Amino acid sequence: MNILVINAGSSSLKYQLFDMDNETVLAKGICERIGIDGHLSHKPANGKPNYEADIAMPTHNEAIQAVLEKLVSDEYGVVKSMSEIDAVGHRVLHGGAKFTESCIVNDEVEQAIEDCIPLGPLHNPANLMGIRACKEVMPGTPQVAVFDTSFGMTMEPKVYIYAMPYEYYEKHDIRKYGFHGTSHRFVSQRMLELLGKPDAKVIVCHLGNGSSLSASVGGKCVDTSMGLTPLAGFPMGTRSGDVDAGVLEYVMEHYGYDIHEMLTILNKKSGVLGISGVSSDFRDLDNAAAEGNERAQLALDKFAYEVKKFLGSYVAALGGVDGIAFTAGVGENSPEMRENIVKGLDYMGIEIDSEKNKVRGKETDITGTNSKVKVFIVPTNEELMIARDTKELTAK
What we know:
The chain is α/β, with parallel strands linked by helices and 396 residues long. It is built from 14 helices and 14 strands. It has two domains: 2-150, 2-Layer Sandwich (Nucleotidyltransferase, domain 5), CATH 3.30.420; 196-377, 2-Layer Sandwich (Nucleotidyltransferase, domain 5), CATH 3.30.420.40.
């Protein structure tokens, strides 16, 4: 069974084609600058040459058409015809309170995703464009929506409710949802296998330019650090994380900003970029700190400290923890950051082995000799998780 996974942005479209009989990637690529001048980068995994060229892509329809043409072409293709693509799985950012799990897209689902645009104004419109483009170009092929927010729908009311007038929740579904859900679900499920314990208490540290933590029991989410939007939690590449709301009022009055300008600052100009003034890329911060840049070091220290706080609070929320996983760009590739986060948690029985921890980007048990809690690096694979859900819902 071949499944095409689509992650559509406002002007981009990433894709991977999976052979789900053995969960291997047949081809992957990205369409960029959709609506501007268009560029396709296509990489088959069968030894055929890569394709890299500018292609006119006025809309996502033309982007999907270009992808399909390459997937079936004699020179760059990996399947003989479009009939060999059995289903398409789509990443959808926000499902609101309506979707607790992935589902096959029909008119009702499509309308519900559109209704959630106020909750995900930057991503949901693009996700919808991807779905509608595939429906147009691939009529009759099943489409599946996999929601970034569905993982958090198992949280209890005491976890997801905000301490604000209750009518905001009743009338507008304002609550904590959490994001990176597909990644958290993939990694937490993998941790159950690695621990050999189907009811394990697991904390997943998804650390990258966008970062979040989740606490789960048996793969079911108990708590997660992001909220109604991906802005909540701890500092990220350019996002502030949790901030005293009174700070917003003070800054807005002092500089004359409106709420839209303030949110742009919190989303695009804050986080480790805002503290360091150097970069949102943690590799740049490491280099700058090594050269004596104090603000770069402060940004790194702040990030590690806040992650440690969330991690400790989740151990308390779970009543103990069996395993901790580090994943995503920073989590998988920064031994220094992992060490700084875990440092000082030995009183909780959490230690890592410094030598084992030197690895980057590879699934590895980095548990310390005296640690009572297992600690792993687990590379995430959101696309495979989407493909698995799509297979489960569409396999005949």
